Amino acid sequence: xxxxxxxxxxxxxxxxxxxxxxxxxxxxxxxxxxxxxxxxxxxxxxxxxxxxxxxxxxxxxxxxxxxxxxxxxxxxxxxxxxxxxxxxxxxxxxxxxxxxxxxxxxxxxxxxxxxxxxxxxxxxxxxxxxxxxxxxxxxxxxxxxxxxxxxxxxxxxxxxxxxxxxxxxxxxxxxxxxxxxxxxxxxxxxxxxxxxxxxxxxxxxxxxxxxxxxxxxxxxxxxxxxxxxxxxxxxxxxxxxxxxxxxxxxxxxxxxxxxxxxxxxxxxxxxxxxxxxxxxxxxxxxxxxxxxx
Length: 293
Description:
Blueprint (H helix, E strand, L loop, with lengths): L1 H9 L4 E5 L7 E2 L6 H19 L11 E3 L1 H7 L8 H11 L4 E5 L1 E2 L13 H14 L2 H23 L4 E2 L2 E2 L2 H30 L7 H9 L2 H28 L7 H31 L9
Parallel strand pairs: 1-4, 2-5
Antiparallel strand pairs: 1-3, 6-7
Helix pairs in contact: 2-5, 6-7, 7-10, 9-10
């Protein structure tokens, strides 16, 4: 078996992964792997590694692997628990390493001196947590974008008070839609800041798209955009306050007034968040001193 791994290294592979799963040509003997790991945990994490990080691997948890010393030094492994196996595969893929698989056979473990060290749910959560932390796109960006799209669609329907299929959408829908926009925007900000921090700390490789983004959206432009949104939002709120003044500060026509207040609050909140996020991103972009070894 070992000659097959060495042969792959000699062909130019930097990371050679053993594969016990039939999807990669391997074989799992009866009783060799817990059912939950065999049919759910390992396939799910392997699919995530292929989909999220483009790692050509079908058995990400297999401990039988070979790699070059140069790659090991380059990917700067940091995990100290079960997620170490996933970290090696994910970071190798992110580093653009040449990867290959060798099919192997998994047989039942005959050791009886101690109980299994693997804890299904504890170690499964550790792996999931690692995947999420190393993929701001899936943790923040995509959910945030979906929330903004749904929120803007809701605002477009509720702001004019449309009735669709006999269902009337009013200010309550507008309020909930505004919440979706705010949460989605906050998630996208987290995606950008997390990616910037991870790149600066060497946890993720340099991303040219991020570099282009920060060249376009620098501190000054972020401040200008944020202040413009905030001023516009507070202007909407001022219109509502003026309506209240004209009513001698008495009761208002709330369905009408809230159509000014809710968009105003949303725009003001987005503007203030943009200002703070612009400063924070600038702090992350400051030059760092060399690390001590």
